[in-house]
Amino acid sequence: MHVVILAEFAAASGGAEKVAVESARGLAEAGARVTYIQAVDGPVDPLLDHPRLRRVALALPDVWSLPAWRGAVTGIWNAEAARRLAAALDALPEPVDCLHLHQWSRAFSPAVLPVLLARPAPLVLTLHDYFLACPNGVYYRFDRDEPCTVSPMSMSCLAAPCDPKSRLHKAVRVGRAASLRIARGRESLDVIHVCDGSLARMTGWLGTERLRHHRIDNPVRVVHGAPAEPARGDAVAYIGRLTVEKGADLVAEAARRAGLPALFVGAGPLAEPLRVQGAEVIGWRTPAEVGAILRARARAVCAPSRWYETGPLTIYEALAQGIPAIASTRSGAAEKVRHGETGLVIEPEVEALDQAFRLLRDDAVVERLGRAAHAAYWKAPPTLEAHADALLGLYHRLADEYFMRHCTQSESAERDRTVAALR
After folding, report:
1. With a threshold of 0.85, does the pTM exceed it?
2. Which residues of the chain, if any, have pLDDT below 50?
3. DSSP states of 12-27 as a string?
4. Edge-to-edge strand list for the sheet holding 123-127
5. What CATH number does the domain located at 230-372 have?
6. Domain boundary assignment for the chain
7. Which UniProt keywords apply (predicted)?
């Protein structure tokens, strides 16, 4: 089977790119022939170096690197992206059995959808966020620091000043969302959800008439080994973008109140304010470095998302190592945490986090949660192999359906031509 994976970057600067890269590697290791098409030039993850994996770079600019007016136009409809993608697909040395799109908001734009839908192969989209329905992609009111409550693209949505930058940016995002709906046309799409919460929300917003919904966990690349010893750790750890919607500020304040150090691995607009408050911010680290830091320092890993986050992977990685996880009730990762057994599921509020962190001062509690987390995770781990097997099962099913549907249509057309000739 030949699969084309499409993403805007070839190295992990976020969860979507990480999953795209790891999926490509897992599929290649499982025996599939993989073409990885990246929109933007930049660093390339070593995982993409495999004999059954070829990489194609379209050398498109990231819209955030362009002048404002050009970035806006390109973000709404990037005709050049469509042209380059079509040429790249035409140049592939073998037919494609399935296309899998992971991102389209930074360079590809909705313009690539007609190109992909016109190919003689099924198309799958993984929904790492809510861009298929929501203009700002995270269903969050940045003007209020709270989740949104209105229907995406309704009149209330269009009027809401919810964008993290400005009303002008919101207008551009609305334009992109509208062009996305036009680009889809009447075609049916197969979409993959990475958590139950996303499945429920997107089904409610978009229905099932022209969408077929599938549920596959993201892969977690952690080697099965002895559990960590979190009771020896000294800090509550946060890994990821340092932003308000992800709740980095909540961790800092709650840790201060509970009398525990807070360790931040990542970068973002809150980095300097967190340092000013006395938090330890060490920037981005490689996955191997993060694993070592967590095993040495973390009493728990906390992801107190204010938005309805579909992940984050950091919670799964903590559980896999036997480190207690503290997840927001709004996070898809909370679905994997057993409250009071392998970690804690709490509201993304300072008071709730303060109480949770105070529990973590007890070594016996931390040790119990960590050991239970490790044991529960490895009973049914979402490994890269399991992820690749689930994807291949879906690809084969969709490819078979696509062949039967189009074969039947071709045979019907041939029969009609024969009947017409006999008349």
Report:
1. yes
2. 411, 415, 418-419, 422-423
3. -SSHHHHHHHHHHHHH
4. 53-60, 33-40, 2-7, 98-101, 123-127, 189-193, 211-215
5. 3.40.50.2000
6. 2-219+386-412, 230-372
7. Glycosyltransferase, Transferase
